[in-house]
Amino acid sequence: MNIAIIGAGPAGSVLASLVAQRGHAVAVFDENKRPDLIVGESLVPGLIPVLRRLGIEDRVAKIGVLKPGVTFYPGSGKKVAFCFSSLPRRYPQYAYNVPRPQFDRILQDRFMELGVELVETRVSLFSEGDHIRLASETLALAKTFKGAEPDLVVDASGRRRLSARLLGIGARLGPRKDVSHFSHFAGFEPEHPAGQVRINRLQNGWAWRIPLRGKMSFGIVMDQQAAAALGSTPEERLENAARQDPLLEQEIKGLKRVSNVQTYGNYQLISDRGVGANWVAVGDAFGFVDPMLSPGMMVAVESAVVLDSILSGGDHLNSALLKYSGYMTAQLEAWMDLISYFYDGRIFELHELGMEMQARHTNLPFGFLERFMSANMAGMASGFTTASPFSRSVLRWMDRFVVGAERTPSLKYAIA
């Protein structure tokens, strides 16, 4: 099969390596224009098996920082740490924090090592009904195809969503209308344990600190109007958001910004349709969710892994694409559902009430329940069991049993 992949970001690069290993003829088209800062620097354990499968984990480890988990500061002096060490032993119990340009380069180098052609160009496309075609001038640049049309066009163009724009396909947007500003800094207080990502709840959003080698990635995500009230520039908004948070204010005294400030908007989107007659969308081109639990890279790479697996299953192409579409839509919806527990504060209230019940009923095995719930939550947040019917049912059951039975949720940890 001839496969044209538009975009050499993580989804496109991983897919290129996987399908090339199966013997398909692959060409990746990319403009090679990326900013110095790219969101998605904190990986989750669910990605480790993919890095091992591609034979590049050692390369990622050399540029990254080992990430043992995430610590949340939801307010009212509360601190909740999720550690990957609570994952079942069959799963990797760690991840990495990575500088995205170097990480993306590793993925691109890998597919080129496997013989995939990289064509650096701005792609021209046109449509014939529900078919997407490469313009003749674009097709002529791919030596791999020898002038033949690709059998499958893969849209890995990220948030540009080239296939959706070309065919006029809409999307479902999430309830939040947030904006994010982030940059790299030197001078942040060190995290404990080393490599731990820290997330603070702010008045109208949240802030992250991701440890990288020799610096810290610091960013905010909040309602657009609330962000605008913090200043007229992204630089002012970052600084003022930190000054309004008691914990962050203590950490920024010796801070020095060592990069530009990058801005992203619209963190929740699922395409109404991500497949067609001869095309399919992967990664952000299909959909993306809020970065609260660092799911972006996981969802993007998983879309490539799933598509490769389904294409190799022997189904007719159209049947395979529809199967893939249903799977990825369910994954995105599951991540959105899980993240909602953090935005409305239910996950922290559940933790608090569980600890109270354990203190009151020392003769009952709430300690075991706490360990079970921590493992269940870690499995979902790590990307291994995010969409698992069992894991999702456990979370919903505990939400009803603990929070609902004790009192109406106060939502005191909710993000406005």
Radius of gyration: 22 Å
Shape: globular
Terminal Cα span: 49 Å
- Please report which band the strand proportion falls in: under 5%, 5-15%, 15-25%, 25-35%, 35-45% or over 45%: 15-25%
What is the CATH H-level superfamily of the largest domain? FAD/NAD(P)-binding domain
Q: Determine the oligomeric state from the structure.
A: single chain
Largest sheet: 8 strands, mixed
Number of structural units classed as domains: 3
CATH class type of the largest domain: Alpha Beta
- Approximate helicity band: 25-40%
CATH architecture of the largest domain: 3-Layer(bba) Sandwich
**Low-confidence parts:** none
Helical segment count: 14
What is the name of the CATH topology of the largest domain?
Answer: FAD/NAD(P)-binding domain
Q: What structural class should be given to the helix and strand makeup?
A: alpha/beta
Mean pLDDT: 91
Description:
- The chain has 416 residues and is an alpha/beta fold.
- The protein folds into three domains: 2-63 and 99-171 and 269-336, FAD/NAD(P)-binding domain, CATH 3.50.50.60; 178-265, D-Amino Acid Oxidase, Chain A, domain 2, CATH 3.30.9; 344-406, no CATH class.
- It contains 14 helices and 20 strands.
- It has helices at 10-21, 48-54, 57-63, 100-113, 136-139, 162-167, 224-228, 234-243, 246-251, 296-311, 317-343, 346-360, 366-381, 389-406, and strands at residues 2-6, 25-30, 65-67, 69-75, 78-83, 95-97, 117-120, 125-128, 131-134, 152-155, 171-173, 178-186, 197-202, 205-212, 215-223, 256-257, 262-265, 269-271, 279-281, 287-288.
- Strands 4, 5, 12, 13, 14, 15, 16 and 17 form an eight-stranded mixed β-sheet that branches. A five-stranded parallel β-sheet has the order 7-2-1-10-19, with helices on one face. Strands 11-18-20 form a three-stranded antiparallel β-sheet.
- Strand 1, helix 1 (10-21) and strand 2 form a beta-alpha-beta unit.
- Helix 1 (10-21) packs parallel to helix 4 (100-113) and helix 1 (10-21) runs parallel beside helix 10.
- The longest helix is centred in the last third of the chain and has 27 residues, at 317-343.
- The protein starts with a strand and ends in a 10-residue tail after the last helix.
- 46% of the residues are buried.
- The mean pLDDT is 91.
